[in-house]
Amino acid sequence: MANLMRYNDGLVKLDLWIRRLLTMGASDVLNTALCDGACDVVSAETSVYTVIDHPAGVLTFTAASGAWNPMMEGVTVPLRNGSICAALAACRTPLRVDSLSSFCRESCELFQVVEMNTALLVPIFEEGRVAASLTVFRMDEPFDQVDEQLLQQYAHTASAVMRNFRLMVDLGHHAAMLEKQVEECSRAEERIRQMAYYDALTGLPNRRLFNDRLTQSLALAQRQKRHVAVMFLDLDRFKLINDTLGHVVGDRLLMAVAKRIKNCCRREGDTVARQGGDEFIIKLSSITEVKDALKVAHKIIDVFRNPFIIDGHELFITPSIGISIYPNDGRTCDALVKNADVAMYRAKEQGRNSFQLFAPEMNARAFERLSMENDMRRALDRNEFILHYQPKVNVEHGRIASMEALVRWQHPSMGLVPPSRFIPLAEETGLIVPLGEWVLRTACRQNRAWQDAGYPSMQVAVNLSLRQLQQNDLVEMVERALADAGLAPGWLIIEVTESVMMDDAEETIRTFRRLEQMGVRIAIDDFGTGYSSLHYLKKFPVHSLKIDRSFVREIAFNPDDEAIAGAVISMAEGLNLKVVAEGVETVEQMEVLRALNCRYMQGFLFSEPAPAETFIPLLGKEAHSYLNFTKWC
Ligand SMILES: Nc1nc2c(ncn2[C@@H]2O[C@@H]3COP(=O)(O)O[C@H]4[C@@H](O)[C@H](n5cnc6c(=O)[nH]c(N)nc65)O[C@@H]4COP(=O)(O)O[C@H]3[C@H]2O)c(=O)[nH]1
Q1: Locate the EAL domain: which residues (predicted)?
Q2: 262 and 296 together in one domain
Q3: CB-CB contact of 250 with 238 (8 Å)
Q4: Given 214, 374, 507, 508, which residue has the most CB atoms within 10 angstroms?
């Protein structure tokens, strides 16, 4: 009887605690009922997560740094006396089991406490039956880093534990109860561990487990004076595959990629983890010198040479890898991963499908990027951008057929900066939107001014980036720019790369249709470098396509490039599209292209992009006599 009273007393305490949570606000409870005799559980460093499973729903509270906030206000339910089913608490600072146990013993000293590896189970009896159970899980992560799915799994486990308890107690299996319960909880713990430390899609360790292992390897490497390599791997153009072929194919590709990478890193001490999205991180702790890490990087690049066959699609994808080495490139997990990431970006800039070792200058580069971003924000107001124009020539008679406007930045200290150095940053930061509008307006105005000055009328092409294409009011912006410049829409060509077009193909088709209805012409830039989806090509209202420079470069002596260019030209003819070959630098290239029936060409052979003043003579009636190719004309 005394026991029962004590149990009931405990239950009332717990109920009181939860009632206080509901009525007083959590922070007060924190300092009163919950902390009662258990201050070590809740400190400024501690996050606590509580789930009370109730027949009418789940009540959830979160706490970070000691402040409690209701997380899911919508599901707050009133609790009836004695209807508490389960509670769950998670602490940010790793708590030793015995300190948790003392917390429970002290605050609910009358409860029977079952200790497990990382959890405590506190059955709460009422009149000889299990009325509730308090399940306390220990977690090593701050609450805000624990994902929702995992927390739900905890809540689910807590209530499953309680149900089993009730059942077993009801059946009178008191003796076996605790043992079975521990077993059940261990299995649940294993499931939770799997979710907490492994990536659900690929089964690889996740970032959390990776950090744990890296921390251990670094401690060992420090004692043994050895190296540890960290690699940051990002798949090139993965998004394109995801967007064109769908997430199911994308996911399967990631699984296959994970397998191949794992096969390259099989030594003891190697860990391949998924960082998220299409990013992987790798730890190699068995290396004796930097060379060993480079060998592995080579091996990884090599295993990507063969295509991945996913759902009947033959997919080619390449990785970009950045490598940092302990202790030279960093002594902590964060520093090593960050520097490997910086090196990975460098690998991407260098043309993808490659790896880069971290070098301290790269951080200087990151700093340079930051100051460049700041400069760029001011550059528009200061009129530091200028346009250069490059002719597209009709090689049948040597006259300029149209021109392309290419932006440059006249930087006060760096001089003339080419677009390759600032367009990607402008895209990343969103500055491309105002900059792109400036380019469009300036090119339209310039074209109109040349027409007014009596030069032969011709189209001007302007490049459009992904960010601009995603603008809701893009069509209206183009319309306004044309109207303000007084230029008829037919004199404007919008150039968009294949990959940008495919980012959201259906939306692009809608936008292009509206532009086409307005009279604007559309060209596909860098054709052949993206997915070259013929299915879509037919659907896009485009008027011309530009054969990418990479096919033109070796066309005079590489039969494959010649065959590709030939195929593109005949296909374009079939679809009634104009073809422009980009990057024509030599007479030989021009001859091969001409033999393939390509009439329009652009490249240094004819003229480099030039500022408006220098471009004017090319516009004259005698245009061909000003072009470089008069040499062979
Ligand atoms: N090696 C070689 N290169 C040649 C030859 N002929 C022309 N080029 C270069 O090829 C690029 C053609 O432009 P793009 O493919 O649209 O590629 C452009 C375009 O994607 C982007 N870009 C330039 N201006 C703008 C702009 O106003 N807006 C946007 N969104 N992108 C722009 O920057 C890229 C690079 O522009 P540029 O440096 O001006 O580089 C230009 C041009 O200078 C040649 O014979 N040989």
Answers
A1: 369-623
A2: yes
A3: yes
A4: 214
pLDDT of the residue at 72? 21
Residue type, 213: R
Does the beta carbon of 525 lie inside 6 Å of ligand 1? yes
Closest alpha carbon to 402 in 218, 602, 163, 536 = 602
- pTM exceeding 0.90: no
pLDDT in tens, 579-633: 999 999 999 999 999 999 999 999 999 999 999 998 887 776 554 544 554 444 4
Give which of 614, 572, 616 is closest to 593, Cα–Cα. Answer: 572
Three-state secondary structure call for residue 38: coil
Q: What is the dihedral of CA 75, 80, 84, 89, to 10 degrees?
A: 50
DSSP assignment letter at 629: G
Residue 418 near ligand 1, beta carbon < 6 Å: yes
185: pLDDT confidence band, cut at 50, 70 and 90?
low
* CATH number of the domain encompassing residue 573: 3.20.20.450
The sheet with strand 57-64 has its strands ordered as 48-54, 57-64, 67-70
Q: Higher-confidence residue: 279 or 157?
A: 279
Interval 348-367: pLDDT, tens: 877 778 899 998 887 777 77
Quote the CA–CA distance of 508 and 514 in Å, as a whole number: 10
Distance in angstroms (rounded) separating the CA atoms of residues 552 and 560: 11
Report which protein residue has its CA nearest ligand 1's atom 6. 603
- C-alpha span between 240 and 248 (Å, rounded): 13
Mean pLDDT of all residues in 537-544 = 87
- 581's enclosing H/E stretch is strand 578-581
Q: What is d(CA 287, CA 297) in angstroms, rounded to the nearest whole number?
A: 13
Kindly state whether residues 581 and 469 are assigned to the same domain: yes
Torsion angle, alpha carbons of 323, 324, 325, 328, to 10: 140
- Domain extent for 46: 2-197
328 and 343 in contact (C-beta within 8 Å)?
no
Residue 241 CA to ligand 1 centre (angstroms)? 25
3-state secondary structure 398-440: CEEEEEEEEEEEEECCCEEECHHHHHHHHHHHCCHHHHHHHHH
Q: Assess contact for 274 and 201: CB atoms under 8 A.
A: yes
How many structural domains are present in the chain? 3
Q: Is 609 in the pocket of ligand 1 (CB under 6 A)?
A: yes
Is 172 in the same domain as 253? no
Distance from C-alpha of 562 to C-alpha of 552, rounded to nearest angstrom: 8
Question: How many angstroms is it from 440 CA to the middle of ligand 1?
Answer: 15
Give the number of residues written for the chain: 633
Residue 587 within a domain: yes
Residues in CB range of 338: below 8 A, 6 or more apart: 330
Count of CB atoms situated within 10 Å of the CB of 340: 26
Q: How many helices (H) and strands (E) does the chain have?
A: 23, 24
Over residues 289-314, mean pLDDT: 91
Looking at the predicted complex, does its ipTM rise above 0.90?
Answer: yes
| DSSP-assigned states of every residue in 225-286 | T--EEEEEEEETTHHHHHHHH-HHHHHHHHHHHHHHHHHH--STTEEEEEEETTEEEEEE-S
* Closest CA to ligand 1's atom 3: 583
Quick one: pLDDT at residue 553?
93
**Whether 256 and 171 share a structural domain:** no
